[in-house]
Write a structure and sequence with these properties.
This protein is of the alpha/beta class. It has eleven helices and seven strands.
């Protein structure tokens, strides 16, 4: 078993859920720091939820954890296939801790090209951009992957799922596709047309012979917005506030 140091990037691919849990446990100090950033009255709730997430993750088989991590650690294929190691694992634990409070019935879904995570009968996609791609770059690559997969023939709309994003790069406000960041955004969803128009790849329809309706609208929320939701919550409102976002 490779030696795992908290916060360090490793090129060795981890292949068991036990190693995954052990790594997260080694990050307990960093998780504690994360929790202390929130109002003191909420810290017990956050701490309890973080422990519950570890127990839940521990209940999954290796192949389920591996497939989740493979789809969670996002990078554009044109940048190669460098093994991502532990990049983003601690952030996944943090994201799941907030989801645990809002939706304790979450589960890891059999990973597909458009979702890797379920809450009751709804599906979500949690992605960590290991090389800090921009939101439009991530969306466009996801669409490419989707239309290369057999799923494209069976699913009407790719982005009917909420995409929870962490570690994407934001160089301009125009690139920000998070519905929550944009307080002036009346509609929670972003038109895929807008992404195509604003960020190029206008041949995307021609290449796959798809209709615009096939992709549908896109709903993205960034992890920063989940955290800011906690910051403005109280013990009485925390669950409902988070449920309002995810
Ligand atoms: Zn946001």
């Amino acid at each position: 078993m490779p030696t795992l140091l908290p916060g360090k990037l490793h090129s060795t691919k981890i292949t068991s859920s036990i190693e995954f849990i052990q790594y997260l446990e080694s990050c307990q100090g960093q998780m504690d720091v994360f929790i202390t950033r929130f109002p003191s009255e909420l810290q017990y709730i956050l701490s309890k939820a973080s422990s519950e997430v570890l127990s839940r993750l521990d209940s999954y088989e290796d192949d389920v954890i591996n497939s989740l991590l493979d789809s969670y650690q996002f990078y554009r294929r044109e940048l190669g296939s460098v093994p991502p190691g532990v990049s983003g694992w601690l952030d996944l634990w943090k994201i799941l801790t907030l989801i645990q409070i809002a939706r304790p019935d979450w589960h890891i879904k059999n990973v597909s090209h458009y979702s890797n995570f379920g809450i009751n009968k709804s599906y979500y996609y949690i992605l960590y951009s290991i090389y800090q791609d921009t939101m439009p770059e991530i969306i466009l690559e996801l669409v490419e992957r989707f239309f290369e997969s057999p799923l494209a023939y069976f699913t009407d709309r790719m982005f009917s799922r909420l995409l929870i994003l962490e570690n994407s790069l934001l160089l301009s406000e125009e690139q920000n596709l998070c519905y929550k960041c944009k307080t002036d955004n009346q509609d929670k969803k972003v038109k895929f047309d807008r992404i195509i128009t604003n960020f190029g790849k206008s041949d995307i329809y021609d290449r796959w012979g798809i209709s615009r309706n096939h992709v549908g609208d896109i709903q993205v929320v960034c992890f920063k917005c989940l955290q800011s939701t906690v910051l403005k919550s109280s013990t009485h409102t925390l669950t409902a506030e988070l449920q309002g976002v995810i």
